[in-house]
Amino acid sequence: MYISFKDLRIAMYAISVFLVAPYAVEASNNTPQENNNSWQQLSPSLRIGGSARYRYEAKQDFQFGSPTAGNSQDYWLQQLRLHILWQPSSNIGLFVEAQDARIFQAFSRHVIDNRKTPNIFEDHLDIHQAYLDIKTHGMDESSRIRIGRQKFNLGALRMVASLEWVNTARVWDGIRMTSQLGKHNTLDVFSSRLVPVNPTEFNNHKITKSRFFNSSFHGIYYTNKNQLFAHTQFELYALLREEATVGDRVFTWGNRAAYKQDTWDADYEVMLQTGSYGNLTQRAYALHVGAGYTFDTMQTHMSTAYNFGSGDSNASDNTHQTFDNQYPLNHAYYGYMDFFSLQNMHNVEVVAQTNIAQTWKLRAAWQGFWLAKPSTDAWYNAGAGITRPASVGASHKVGDEIDITLKHTFPAISSTMYIGYSHFFTGAYIAQTGSSKDADFIFTQLKAVF
Length: 450
Hints:
Elements: H1 8-20, E1 39-43, E2 46-60, E3 73-89, E4 92-104, E5 123-137, E6 141-150, E7 172-181, E8 185-194, E9 216-225, E10 232-243, E11 248-261, E12 264-277, E13 280-282, E14 284-295, E15 300-309, E16 319-320, E17 345-357, E18 360-371, E19 379-380, E20 386-388, E21 397-410, E22 415-426, H2 428-433, E23 439-449
Parallel strand pairs: 13-16
Antiparallel strand pairs: 1-2, 2-3, 2-23, 3-4, 4-5, 5-6, 6-7, 7-8, 8-9, 9-10, 10-11, 11-12, 12-13, 12-14, 14-15, 15-17, 17-18, 18-21, 19-20, 21-22, 22-23
């Protein structure tokens, strides 16, 4: 029998987080930082480090009250990493990182398949990253070529991210050249293939059931800082995801700008897609626009944003209009419960973040969700899977989500702790298309970096 959120067991887990938090370092459930490591110097050219992360998740009615398995789950996630960096000179570096990720499902009746490939929960002692950096320096520019298994985090991460939230994270095998063109301009060019995680064997490129893991992935990403427009970072990019066996050749043409001056900030991102998807003509687009204000006296930041991903208006024609969300960090943007991706969706959000004490930070967010084409296209979750198929005549309004996250930092030992609670209020669409019980989510996370 599943034990509900009202159980004392939940309270005991929360108490355990407070007891062990002083021994943990740096937790993150938001934007990841590439190679965010603490190093031990073994010699002038050799450094080692590692991390240990633990997270507890409890999900209730994630299928909105359906009697099927997996409606409610709870489990512990463990992630251990060990890395080594060898830099024999300023121009050459070799980075290798091993990872061991596990899931413990004692209270959820083992409803999660921790043996399938690809897997976001388990990765038994494997090579997570392994790359060679070669750097060159000139009078006005410098460049770096990175070859091997590596992470990509580009722009605001709405299209390309290493997805550190999931237990196994996301890495690519490929080559990337980053050129610093003068003081203000950076150009990234890469060619790669995503690495599917095989929980019990060495991660390689065997064919999976996912078109995204079977795809090659290439891109050009240009960034200009504070030159074209004052106080603004301006970005242009072109991405190509290609999987010939299923007829995918999706081009994404994007433009992003982020402005910040004094207490105001704003950003937008526009993405257009051409090419083919499943041998159909790909014609899709997505949009983000947001603005925020910082109240200095209260150390509070308020922001609001609108996000849109196009949906397919006719599933029987030769044009595919559903936006291909590719390899994003959906978790940080469209609700911490991961019910949505940037596909067939309208989303409005309001977020408040404030320092409630010197070492405490509170984040509270409201998210409203509507489907763009509920009668002709599906509802897609954060992993681009179909939550519910198209339903003729269904309402556009799916529901609302409240996310509350508390962060505590221990300055003396540079440690951080997160506790989060989310609630999803079901809307008319869910009531019209199946079971419609509200859903809840609790998580606690710790990460030690050594």
